[in-house]
Amino acid sequence: MCVSQAVRNHLNAMQWMGIKFNPGRAVAIYKGHDLEWYQDKPADLTEFEISKDDFVVTFAGRNRPHKGAHVIVESTRWIPPEIPVHFILMGKIAENRKLLRQIADSPISARIHLPDFRNDAPAVIAAGDAFLMPATKREGLSRAVIEAMPYGIPPIVTNVGGLPELVKDRESGYVIATNDPKALAQRIIELYKHPETKKRLGENARRRIDTHFNINTTVEKTRQVFEELMAEAGKK
What we know:
- This protein has 236 residues and is α/β, with parallel strands linked by helices.
- It has 9 helices and 8 strands.
- The protein has helices at 5-13, 69-75, 97-104, 121-126, 143-148, 163-166, 181-193, 195-212, 215-235, and strands at 15-16, 19-20, 55-60, 85-90, 112-116, 130-133, 155-158, 174-176.
- The strands form 2 sheets. Strands 5-4-3-6-7-8 form a 6-stranded parallel beta sheet. Strands 1-2 form a two-stranded antiparallel ribbon.
- α2 (69-75) crosses α7 (181-193) and α7 crosses α8.
- The two termini are 22 Å apart.
């Protein structure tokens, strides 16, 4: 059972010692969620010296290059300094010395915040205006993006792995090319300048989790797989 069609397609294309995987044996079943699981009160961001008039974009992920934190930092070069955008990058980002040097060189370095690991990450995300996941490779189906969408936070993701299955471009968020910090900046600016677009995408993001990534659908599809396997075993 694969978490996305992208993972299923990758598995079907694999070969081991010249033997190809039987494509009929892999099925894609999305991670199921329930909107009732996401009831965190938006965090108070004044600890980052962020005011209610500022525009906040968040990221949560491991300290791995393929998560794309470096793309986020690079995108700040295309954001006009007068636009009050703040970046909150959660995770062990501060352990990445190369990224820290990149942040120091950013024209808005004072507005890039590294709070490390947070137990209240969903609440911080819920307090923001957009969620970023500019992965460069190996992204099956991002749990962090899924956890942002129920709060009505529009995501900006790349066309990697299962991310385009999760986010429909310009419908429930934005999907951009990989390693394109300028495009990332443009989407951030667009959401800042057009609050009605941000609201529409956020509402659609929440609705998409409820309809396409619902826990009841996951349970039903998983049950069907086990019933088919039991039926096959009974014929032997």
